[in-house]
Each structure stands twice: as C-alpha cells, then as structure tokens.
Design a protein that fits this description.
The chain is of the alpha+beta class. The chain has three helices and eight strands, in the order H-E-E-E-E-E-E-E-H-H-E. Strand 2 and strand 3 form a beta hairpin. The structure holds zinc ion (ZN). The site of zinc ion (ZN) has 5 residues, from helix 2.
Length: 150
C-alpha cells in the first residue's frame, strides 16, 4: 500500500466532476486500499478519489466504526437536518459550520462489485455527504458558515 499526496484547494481537479467506475479492476482495488491508507495516515474521517488526483467516483469513510469503501456512491434518501463543524484534508487549517442531512441512505458498490445500501446518522452521515460532494467538485467551504482558520 502507499500513501498518496493530498491535493489542496486551489487545484482545479477538486472542482471537476468525477466519472463513474464502469468496472472494478485491480487498479480500482489498489486505489481503494491506498485511499484508506492515506486517509488513516492523515487522520481523516473520509476521502474521495479526486482528493488524490483521480477523477473517479470512489470514496472511503471511517467514522470510528470500521472502513467503508464505496464505488459509484449515490445518496438515495436525506432525512432531518443537523449543523456541525466540519473540515477537509484538502482545505487544511480551516473549519466551518455546515448544515447536512442528519441521516442518509447511500447506495454503492463494494470492492467485490456487490451493491450495498448504507444507512447512517451522525458523523458517518456527514462524512458520506462530504465525500460524495467531492465527486461533484463541491467543497465544504462552499456550504459552510462561520469559516475559521485554526
Ligand atoms: Zn473533504
């Protein structure tokens, strides 16, 4: 496994739309493994492929209850609303308050290509929404209020 360099705000890759993955290949599995490694080494809760310069719809999330790797994720349901402080590995030293759905239902493919549905609340729901935003070129600072440097 390898740790990727994380791309930071200002790089236009972060503003592009990532493409769906048509087929799960060894390269996609390697991408998932390396993204997880990069996320853990940076002490992040989630990571999206565009953050490491790969414009594919792949995310990893670990909100403290185990690693999720999802390919072509999409949010099927948003429920409730919650405001919390958020940051991003691609926007270092910055936090802001973001309103997100309190619970989401997300569909995607796991690493074996099987469709899975994830229902999540709290930090996990927030991380999933944040990472899926990255796939559409959206950064948390676009949605945040009270943006602060830390
Ligand atoms: Zn982010």
């Amino acid at each position: 496994m390898a740790v990727y360099k994380i791309i930071e705000v200002g790089n236009k890759i972060l503003r592009e739309h990532a493409k769906p993955v048509p087929k799960i290949t060894p390269n996609i599995l390697k991408l998932l493994d390396n993204m997880a490694e990069t996320m853990y080494s940076a002490k992040g809760v989630g990571m999206a492929a565009p953050q490491v310069g790969v414009l594919k719809r792949v995310i990893t999330v670990d909100a403290g209850d185990g690693l999720i790797g999802l390919i072509n994720p999409e949010i099927l349901k948003f429920e409730g609303q919650e405001t919390d402080s958020e940051g991003c590995l691609s926007v270092p030293g910055t936090i802001g308050d973001v309103v997100r759905a309190a619970e989401v239902e997300v569909r995607g493919l796991d690493r074996s290509g099987k469709e899975c549905i994830i229902r999540a609340g709290g930090l996990k729901a927030r991380a999933l929404q944040h990472e899926i935003d990255h796939l559409d070129g959206i950064l948390f600072i676009d949605r945040a209020r009270n943006i602060k440097k830390i």
